[in-house]
Amino acid sequence: MQLNDLRSAPGARRSRKRVGRGEGSGIGKTAGRGQKGQSSRTGAHSTVGFEGGQMPLQRRLPKFGFKSRRSRYADEVRLGDLTRVAGDVINIETLQAAKLVHAQARRVKIILCGGIERAVTVQIVQGVIPTKGARTAIEAAGGTVED
Fold first, then answer.
1. Which is more confidently placed, 85 or 46?
2. What's the pLDDT tens digit per position in 75-109?
3. Is the pLDDT score of 140 beyond 90?
4. 76 and 139 together in one domain
5. Contact 103, 134 (CB under 8 A)
6. How far apart are alpha carbons 89 and 93 in whole angstroms?
7. What is the DSSP string of 2-16?
8. What does pTM read for this prediction?
9. 139 and 77, same structural domain?
10. Average pLDDT along the chain
11. H-helix or E-strand containing 59?
């Protein structure tokens, strides 16, 4: 077998439809576009999502989703990650220095995930807020939460 012997299977390649080539072709005169109407004219198009005057799908479905602009300045830290912070005082500056929160963070929430063994002082005034479970875990380890 040579490359010039390769052929597609019979019926695999259909020839393109040549419209408007006389009545005998079966698709002459109106060329498969029908009699009248917008889609029978040349250059006719409708906008994306247009359904012939029926209420379009994107307007029938309810709107959803919301992204708060405040979330850009909020971040969260797991309780187990506080061991990477140098020193015993936890505030936004020390968390940013340890690269645990984003540089733009203004509010940080400490969530109960993992554990902490050493006593740390969390300063709520600086925008670091522990959850109820994280607060009890910090206090159980001998730490304090300053309001």
1. 85
2. 999 999 998 998 899 999 999 999 999 999 999 99
3. yes
4. yes
5. no
6. 10
7. -GGG--PPTTSSPPP
8. 0.55
9. yes
10. 91
11. helix 57-60
Instruction: Please give the structure tokens belonging to residue 28.
Output: 């002459």
Task: Look at residue 1 and tell me if it is in a domain.
Answer: no
Q: Which two tokens stand for residue 13?
A: 């390649």
Indicate the residue among 10, 31, 61 that finishes a domain: 61
Cβ partners under 8 Å of residue 25, min gap 6: 18, 19
- Look at residue 144 and give its three-state secondary structure: strand
Burial state string for 60-84 with b = 16 or more CB within 10 A and e = fewer than 16: eeeeeeeeeeeeeebbbbebebbee
Residues 56 and 111 in one domain: no
Amino acid at 36: K
Range of the domain at 115: 71-146
pLDDT at 46 exceeding the cut of 90:
no
